[in-house]
Amino acid sequence: MTPRAHRVVSRRGETADTWTLALEPLPGEELPLFAPGQFGMLYAFGVGEIPISVSGASTALDPLRCTVRSVGSVSAALCATAPGDVVGLRGPFGSRWPLAEATAGDVVIVAGGLGLAPLRPAIHHVLAHRNEYGRVIVCYGGRSADELLFMSELEVWRGRFDLDIDVIVDIAGPDWHGKVGVVTKLVELAAFDPDRTFALLCGPEVMLRFGALTLRKRGVPVERCYISMERNMHCAIAQCGHCQFGPKFICREGPVQRYDEVEPWLKIGEL
Amino acid sequence: MQSIEQTLAATRMFRNLTREQLAALARLGEEVEYADGSRLMIEGEPADWFFVIREGFVALQTDAPSGAITIETLHNGDSVGWSWLFEPYLTHFDARSRGATQAIRFDAATLRVRCAEDRELGYELMRSFASVIVERLQATRLQLLDVYGRATVS
Ligand SMILES: Cc1cc2nc3c(=O)[nH]c(=O)nc-3n(C[C@H](O)[C@H](O)[C@H](O)COP(=O)(O)OP(=O)(O)OC[C@H]3O[C@@H](n4cnc5c(N)ncnc54)[C@H](O)[C@@H]3O)c2cc1C
Question: What is the pLDDT of residues A76-87, one digit of tens each?
Fold first, then answer.
């Protein structure tokens, strides 16, 4: 699969090192359809290609978006693109959030830091099909207020009556008037019915483990906890083995996986 | 509004207390209200009280040159203060109400005497506070672990 050329239509700074790019296929290229949870291989021409989850799933309301943290050469090149620049995109790849399975019950979304990006299309989907779900709860944690994504959208979500969203940070100065502590605390405080809840989690692996543990303590069966695993990968077509995780290839079976199916390997560093 | 006893019974920390013990504890509590910004406890001052939050939001804070740093926030059903349990009974952090807060306040000296007289109640209260202290320790460890750390991108 060769990368298809996309134009960067806008670039928004989320935090000091994280940018959201809105992309549009060049004329003649098809608009790729990404389901919430899926990722694309984003190519900075002449530098390289990396997996990036979509943070806006090209719906009627939202263009295709990717939120990228600058951590190395390719992500830095992508973050430095300007509107009008062209990047390559392969995809969609990977599994999706279990939004069809979750209907009729409560949905608890637990995100840490950059982990809100792959969950954003899932939140949009649930809000667009609001009648199909019970309570919808978003628990979002970050290291500090400066490291939270989508601030203006968080405010809009907070104003809705059909969504319980709460944000918590690890470290807070005088300007922060919200909750302080770890995101698991929001899971403890949230009101949902564990017997009919699906939980979707994305964030660093330590957070995923403790998030799932807290959900389990609250009575959510582990088979209804799904995580997005974003370990290092390369080819995205289950050939190179870069992202092999136990018996699974994250690019093929992941990134979204049922927690009980990956739990045994989560405590092992890069496999 | 719930009675003090009902409020205490609904908290996780006092779930192991018998009805009699809850009633005994409730008799020592008084209902209090704090306006936004008022301090329930002051760092370094005698730990004369502990609180159970009924409705509201309390920030545990310490002062830094840049202003007050919030270490943790506490919410409905949480207890505020455990320095009253151990000598020298001095408060470690400021506890400040964020918005209006309704709480149940307990007089520490009376409670200590009561626990010495009624060892079973004293033991159960110690267990309740130990569980809170362990939970807060785990939460602090997670904060130290920096669970959103950069090493694992996402
Ligand atoms: C399915 C999937 C979805 C992803 N979605 C996003 C996203 O939406 N936004 C985003 O910013 N990033 C995302 N990532 C991570 C992103 O792919 C990496 O940050 C990127 O590959 C780094 O490439 P680089 O050339 O910029 O840095 P490199 O020079 O390759 O790496 C810089 C540093 O980051 C480490 N690193 C690289 N990739 C990973 C990884 N996956 N996990 C942990 N450490 C890593 C390297 O070991 C190195 O220390 C995702 C990864 C996967 C597998």
Answer: 999 999 999 999
Q: Is A79 within a domain?
A: yes
B28 touches chain A (CB under 8 A): no
Range of the domain at A72: 4-93
Query: Which CATH number goes with the domain that contains A38?
Result: 2.40.30.10
pTM to 2 decimal places: 0.86
Q: What percent of chain A has pLDDT over 90?
A: 73
Percent of chain A clearing pLDDT 70 (strictly above): 89
Q: Which of A232, A253, A256, A266 to mutate to test the pocket of ligand 1 (most atoms within 8 A of CB)?
A: A232
Across residues A58-73, what is the average pLDDT?
A: 85
What is the count of structural domains for chain A? Answer: 2
CATH number, position A197 = 3.40.50.80
B5 phi and psi angles, rounded to 5 deg: -60, -40
For ligand 1, atom 6, the nearest C-alpha belongs to A52
What does the block give as tokens for A89?
């995109």
A85 and A122 housed in the same domain: no
Is A98 inside any structural domain? Answer: no
- Asked if A190 and A203 count as a contact pair (C-beta separation under 8 A), the reply is no
ipTM for the assembly: 0.78
What digits encode the pLDDT tens for the residues A15-56?
Answer: 999 999 999 999 887 778 899 999 999 999 999 999 999 999
Amino acid at A26: L
Cβ(A119) – ligand 1 distance below 6 Å = no
- Probe ligand 1: pick from A11, A17, A23, A50, max atoms within 8 Å of CB? A50
Domain ranges for chain B, please list them. Answer: 4-148
Angle, helices B119-145 vs B19-27, to 10°: value is: 80
Is residue A144 domain-shared with residue A21, that is, in the same domain? no
* Close Cβ partners of B137 (under 8 Å, ≥ 6 residues apart): none
Residue of A nearest to B141 (CA): A182
Same domain, A139 and A245: yes
Do B75 and B12 touch, CB atoms closer than 8 A?
no
Q: What class is the B4-148 domain? A: mainly beta
Indicate the residue among A66, A93, A120 that finishes a domain: A93
Assess whether the previous peptide bond of A174 is cis (omega < 30° from 0): no
Q: Is A53 in the pocket of ligand 1 (CB under 6 A)?
A: yes
